[in-house]
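[agent] plan:
  1. take the single chain provided in the ticket
  2. run structure prediction with default settings
  3. attach structure tokens to the ticket
  4. add a short note for the reviewer (M.T.)
[agent] executing step 1
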Amino acid sequence: MKSLEHELHCPVCKDIVKQPVVLPCQHSVCLLCASEVLVANGYPSPELPPEPNSPASTPNTRSPRQARRPTPKAEQRPIDRVLRSGPHPPSPSMPRSPGYGRRRKDGPPLVMMFPCVPCGRDVELGEKGLTDCLRNLTLERIVERYRHTVSLGSVAVMCQFCKPPHTLEATKGCADCRSNFCNECFKLYHPWGTQRAQHEHIQPTLNFRPKVLTCPEHDQEKLQFYCRSCQRLLCPLCKLRRIHTGHKILPVAQAYQVLKEKITKEMNYILSNQDTVLAQIAQLESGITQTEVNSVSAREQLAQSIRDLTAALAERHASLTQALEMARQKRGEALAAQVAERRSLMEHAGLMAFTQELLKETDQPCFVQAARQTHNRMSKAIENLQNFTLAADPSFRHFQLDVSKELKLLTELNFIQAPLAPVIDTQRTLAYDQLFLCWRLPHESAPAWHFSVEFRRRGVVPGGASRGGIRGGLAAARWGWQRLDEVSGSSAVIDRLEMDSVYVLRVRGCNKAGYGEYSEEVYLHTPPAPVLNFYLDSRWGLHADRLVVSKEQRCARSVPGLSLLQAADHALTSCHLTSDLLVGDVAITQGRHYWACSVEPGSYLVKVGVGLESKLQEWFHLPQDMASPRYDPDSGHDSGAEDALDSSPPFCFLTMGMGKIYLPQHSYQHHHHHGNGIRDPIANGNGPSSPAGLTYPLPPRLGVCLDFEKGRVTFYDAHSLRPLWEGHVDCSGPVCPAFCFIGGGALQLQELVANRNADQTPVRRVTIQPRVSNLNNNN
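[agent] step 2 finished; step 3 output follows
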């Protein structure tokens, strides 16, 4: 029982709880602590009962006559009175909460917020404050048993009705009288044959509890129901409220049984995996030891780094000081030489004295020979006098250091940080023949040396719902995370995937500080069939004036030219418009295949689908004014006279244009024919007799899946793999991907991820071993 004490502590006072109440977040706190917290936050103070062991609550200080009087009803249930008391007006010294003191019609009622310590957030108590918080009687009973077991309740509980100073120790407590008695007093106040003799006697206690929980809003109403939606106990009157309409409400006995079974199963699961618990404890203790050891090592490295910085600064200080001293010496010498030179120009010193003696020479040849050098010196001295400047700059302005940048670096000096969680680029990330994941680091993140990409296949139960609970978590763990290590750059390719599966991907960066946080998980759905790689066939005599195919043969653009203008000239008298057909360079004869393309939103009309190769060739070789055969009501042809209604059409197209995609309600239930026996692909089975379809916003990419054996074509939103429409096509012969342009438009085939990233170096692929081996063995 001693190990239980931590579970019995109040999160506010850190002591064993007294009179605990349950907050809406399901945490329990002492009633007194909850009141003090509310008062500290500026809410009005409720009336609290005195402490159970205080003299005010112990009647042995009263006279025997007072003790024999029946306790007033307000004193019988002081806790209930407090819990049912609404907010009281605050004292003049207490700060008023916003909106306090208003009537209901003047403003919204006061809503109390309680800062829950375990939750780390504010919990809304509502307008009534602690009134709606029920007492945790179960926790009180556990505390009572705990105190009795560890002898914390060794303080004797005295009889409240003995005459002092001869008060005896209490031997019984009465749950109805809410008082403690010795044997004699109990017999005295519970005479045989009276109603009091039926009172329930319990062990002596300082904290009397009500026998049952009652509704805090409806007095004396027992809590007989449990609302699973609100997770609250209800009385029969609360159950009838409109707020619980549509909620799943159970009898409290059923909720008790269900919750007890769940807790029992969870407890048995934990008890059956004690080896795993012990192993994790050992791992955590080892982690604590390593933390201490590594912190000492890190502290030593920090001190060494500071010493290195100090040494580097000292070395740099010495070199700069030496340079400064050399400059001072050199400038001093230059200025001293200039001073000596000026002093020689004094009247009786140096050059002037020598010149005076020279002028005394009377021998002309000797004078001329000796005076030349003196003349030069005198001329130079006069020039220096006229243009006097200092031989060296006495200021040392350029010897000052600008350390602002270095000081900023030193101020920002910090431990190295691991990269922040990468941000997934959802516009470029896709699932096609392979998974292509693209990301970037936030601007404020530390750089990453390389990245680690982790992925796994998402486990789904046969019913389609994700696995959950204990067994669901183990089943998901069996898939295992796989990892691509040391990925350079900001993208990765994952191959060897299963078709029609959902994969979960995440990425994190790594540098000298270790691995950073994971990015948000992204879910990618692989195509429902193997990806078919093909190119646009330009051998069928394309009309260069209307249709242009790129050099890579993966993009086509229709440019409305003179032919469309000529066809539009007959628009009032004919329904024939010029259209251009384009097919893939591959013919499908078996299996299931998937491909995707994107249509420019500004396109006028573009049709994407499949068709029989023979019929496509027949359609292509029609005259240009009939390039798009369309049923003409005035042509005299019968729409259903030549083919059976149950036969599959030779074409299956979906029409897109002007930023929309048209989805017929029925897949080719009515087919229009012409005299040449060609079924009309433009009509798409939605002629005058077909019910109208609906439009859908044009997806960024359109996926097409052909099941040759079943003759079925399914169109998808390639970004989310959501099915858009399904139709049928005649697969009695080879079938080709086909595209049709009416007016201006552009289309591009989805490039294979493998082709796009062919130049990337392969990364190391590993499988992360899940740490649930013991759990799997036990289940």
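[agent] step 4 note for reviewer: The chain has a mean pLDDT of 76.
[agent] ticket updated
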